[in-house]
Backbone:
């Protein structure tokens, strides 16, 4: 019974952790749109704008990657099961 409860709570926690993937998707879309807008206004600064946009996208994506790691740990290498 306790094991089933821990597994169920872990599955729910993994699902909630994956909700964090929504934020990076929205942020990267917003950054790409603003980057395209900036290149349209100043085509000569395309290299600098692209570099800054890619750095921002990498930082935003790290949140989604951390959420994926937490979800995978909860599902496949659950440390809470060792407490039983």
Residues:
């Amino acid at each position: 019974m306790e094991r089933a409860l821990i597994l169920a709570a872990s599955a729910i926690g993994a699902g909630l952790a994956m909700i964090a993937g929504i934020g990076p998707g929205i942020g990267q879309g917003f950054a790409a749109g603003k980057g395209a807008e900036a290149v349209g206004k100043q085509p000569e600064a395309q290299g600098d704008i692209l570099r800054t946009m890619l750095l921002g996208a990498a930082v935003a994506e790290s949140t989604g990657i951390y959420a994926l790691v937490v979800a995978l740990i909860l599902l496949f290498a659950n440390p809470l099961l060792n407490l039983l």
About this structure: The CA atoms of residues 3 and 82 lie 10 Å apart. The chain has a mean pLDDT of 88. The chain has one domain: 2-79.
